[in-house]
Design brief:
The protein is an alpha+beta fold and 190 residues long. It has one domain: Cyclic phosphodiesterase (Cyclic Phosphodiesterase, Chain: A, Alpha-Beta Complex), CATH 3.90.1140. Helices cover 31% and strands 33% of the residues. It contains 5 helices and 10 strands. A 5-stranded antiparallel β-sheet has the order 6-2-1-9-10, with helices on one face. It has a 3-stranded antiparallel β-sheet with strand order 4-5-7, covered by helices on one side. A hairpin with a 7-residue loop joins β9 and β10.
């Protein structure tokens, strides 16, 4: 009974688990986003980011430590790897994004996270590793933008050595970095 009362008073915070890109890659992505926004002066397009989303979920504050411990164990057992970004693609003519050319490693990490016996809710796991440039496009917006970016020569690669957990406190709009998990390639025995 005491646990039920505790959870009724506990805050339900939102979390995002992401792979962040290096500063040099952020600049290259910002250049593309600037060119994209220039096609619609005064109307910014939704969705521009320079991160790869792995998952989003909600957790009551008393369970936060258990979830972060599980995520830390996954990171400890993961080896850093090279990420290749190449070109620009679209998803159902509603989203324009930069694809990750070999997303198997990212999907493997996402699958480990999805398999956790965590006490979270509202969970969503990203099965298409990408960096979104514009989302929720209207058909006329897509038709106007796509010819400019269809053959975009964007290409870069970098080493991914960790993931970030972002937290949004209940009742707030902003996100902050809650914890960084480094990929350390260590053997974890249960």
């Amino acid at each position: 009974m005491q646990d039920i009362i505790t959870y009724k008073r506990a805050a339900l915070n939102n979390y995002r688990l992401i792979l962040d890109t290096p500063v040099a890659v952020k600049r290259k992505i910002a250049d593309i986003s600037t060119r994209l926004d220039a096609l619609f002066p005064g109307t910014p397009l939704a969705g521009s980011s320079s991160v790869i989303y792995l998952a989003s979920f909600s957790v009551y504050e008393p369970d936060e430590m258990a979830v972060t411990d599980q995520l830390h164990r996954i990171a400890l057992a993961t080896m850093p790897w090279k990420i290749h970004l190449k070109g620009v693609a679209h998803l159902e003519k509603k989203e324009i994004y930069i694809p990750v050319t070999e997303g198997e490693r990212i999907n493997a990490v996402t699958e480990k996270i999805a398999a956790l016996p965590a006490s979270w809710s509202n969970e969503r796991f990203n099965t298409l590793p990408r960096i979104s440039l514009a989302r929720n496009l209207q058909s006329w917006q897509f038709e106007r933008v796509w010819p400019y970016f269809e053959k975009e020569p964007f290409q870069t690669q970098f080493i991914m050595n960790g993931m970030l957990l972002l937290r949004q406190l209940e009742g707030y709009r902003s996100w902050h970095v809650e914890q960084r998990f480094l990929f350390e390639n260590q053997l974890i025995i249960d």
